[in-house]
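Quiz preparation item.
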């Protein structure tokens, strides 16, 4: 992820995983990832999350990190 962001700084990258721990999610966000999408996210929510990340928001579902809770719906600016 770090190399990708360095080579393509304007490229938006989201992490999708079934087993990423809170530290993995925080690390990805620190490297410029625009969000974390768990594989268990319902299809409709996935589509909404992708569209909102494209619009510049960051998606982190509740409970995905040990830090402060995200805003309602998992989106932050």
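Solution:
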């Amino acid at each position: 992820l770090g190399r990708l962001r360095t080579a393509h700084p304007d490229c938006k990258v989201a992490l999708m995983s079934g087993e990423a721990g809170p530290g993995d999610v925080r690390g990805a966000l620190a490297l410029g990832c625009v969000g974390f999408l768990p594989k268990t996210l319902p299809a409709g929510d996935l589509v909404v999350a992708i569209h909102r990340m494209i619009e510049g928001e960051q998606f982190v579902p509740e409970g995905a990190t040990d830090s402060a809770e995200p805003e309602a719906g998992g989106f932050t600016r």
